[in-house]
Every structure is written in C-alpha cells, then in structure tokens.
Amino acid sequence: MVSFKGAQFPQDVILHAVFFYVRYGVSYRDLEEILAERGVVVDHATLNRWVVRYASVLATVAQRRKATTEPSWRLDETYVKVRGEWCYLYRAVDRKGQTLDFMLSEHRDEAAAQTISSNGLPRACAIDKSGANTTGLKGMNAALRKVGSDRRIRVYRSTYLTDVFDLKFLKYGAPCFWLTY
User: Taking every annotated instance into account, which residue ranges of this chain make up the domain DDE (predicted)?
Assistant: First the structure.
C-alpha cells in the first residue's frame, strides 16, 4: 500500500487532492482555492509535490487491483441517437455480460473498432457481420505479428451471441448516457 509516513496532512486530504488533480486536470492554484473553500489551507507547491510523489504509486496500486476480464469477448456496434445526432456505439462485453468498454464514433471504420482495447487483449472475439470490427481485429493481429508476439485473437462470427447482449445491454444497468437530460 501507499505510505504516507511523514506527511503533515491526513491521508484522506492528500488522496482527495491527488484524485481531484488527476481526474479533473485543474491547475494547482485552482485546486488550492477549492481545498481552501473546504477548510484546508495548503500551498500550490505542496499540491505539486503530492501529485509527483503519489500519483504514479496510486496508479500502480489501482492497476494491480483491477479485476481480470474473461478471455472471450463479444464486440458489436449499433446506431444510436445522442443529443439529437446519430452516431455509432461500439461496445465490448465479456462472456458474463460485463461491459468492458464502449465508445461513440461518428464514423464506422477500422480506427473506431480498434480503440476498444483498454482492458487488454482477448483470446477470442465473437462478432457479427461488421466489416469495421473484422478489419479492426485483423489490424490488431497484424500489429501483434509485427512486434513478434505469438499471440493472436481468434475471431469467429456469431450473430446470436452479439444479438443476445444487445437486449441485455440496453435493459440491465448499462450506461444509458444518451437518455440523460
């Protein structure tokens, strides 16, 4: 765990300040004012030292605690209306139905399909007849081959696997951000 030995402020204050800086990208002087409004008087130089000292350590701890994903994924895209504009919603779901990643894109192309990889690489992917997903996965396999990796993503087509998760995604606990006010 992260050691706060020798710190002059409580651990919660330091964690809150580092999280706020990293998450929202405010300046140190703005963060100084925000903390002052909450009754914590701290200099912007001290905030800089906290971020330099603790941000990378906290990121490492968070990466270790990240839950592993299933090796088999389902990739799909659909056309949705977001704030009055139509766009493509790409999403990756593991075989247990947990949403791994999603992305909105104006275009249906290879670049959009390749961006869903923040949870590592799957061993196998089920896709429908989407040309963008096929091209994106072929591009990932080519990149793996180019760097000398023996690993490949096995791609298989299954309309039923991706269609079943369409209903589940929209019905149960999915981030329906296009329905927000």
Answer: 72-119
